[in-house]
User: What shape does this take?
Amino acid sequence: MKEMILPHGTVKLPAFFPDATRGVVRTVDSTDLENCGVQGLVMNTYHLMTKPGPATIKNLGGLHSFSSWNKPIITDSGGFQVFSLLRENASLGEIRTKEIIFKRDGKKTILSPEKCIQSQLSYGSDVLMALDYCTHPDDPYETQVKAVDTTIRWGKQCMDTFSQAKNKGSAQLFGIIQGGNDKALRKECAQALIQQGYTGFGFGGWPLTEDGCLAEEILAYTAELIPNHMVKYAMGVGKPENIVACVKMGYNLFDCVIPTREARHNRLYVFKEEIDLNRDFYQYIYPLDDDYRRDPRPISDKCDCHACANYSRAYIRHLLSIGDGLGSRLATIHNLRFFTMLMEMLA
Assistant: This one.
């Protein structure tokens, strides 16, 4: 599959969508993103339900108008928050048969399959994600079975709600395949969801092993379960070498906080002199190192981003050392351009 045709534009695949969880990619604006070659963003249904709320977003013309981003937007369902929030602190809510209950800051948020889709439709999303039950690979078999059963049941409810909606236009709905590291459960989940009529699928669950390595075997197996004419979305995969590995498996869509978060923590990605994507092809630069105090060079002479075209390592180091926001903005711009250049190389 070479491209994804969506209401707000055609996305060339493979593509990397930065995470704009709460409706913003921190430290940069829509013009910066476009100049970096970013084709689309991922925002989060649950977080946007809490602030500013679906009604506010709808009244302001939807997410594209609200955020001044006129290219595609994927809205994640909120299912991962089951994993990240409730797993760490059960007092923050519970998973019920028909819905997920979140409790934060004295407020209760109910996320059902129907409400999940209705909220995403009100946002005007280009790609909606079905509500799923996310698990950790090390969760017991009984938990994985429950997650698959729930994901299939909720998936049907999500598709029914989406199919019956009058305001969906040409938006698309993707399913999420769960099952942990159990191939039989992954197959059961994939086969059931494919019959429900989705146009793309995400790999559900944590994509890394316990020691932080890519869970290659189950990722590759899950990719094989998805028909090749559909989008194969490696959700949360963001290390450059892991993206390269997943493209070889057949995945063609990625998102992660890595480039933007690491930019804010003063770690920049730079291609090596000889770029061979089958070997170590990049390195890190830590711009606050004393080595760069008087360094007149750009972050990378292989990069055409705004930061590299206009500013020296010495100046960016100065900005970061005094805590000026421009330093974080330039670092974020550079890392995002590194990732979009990587996707161009993989096309």
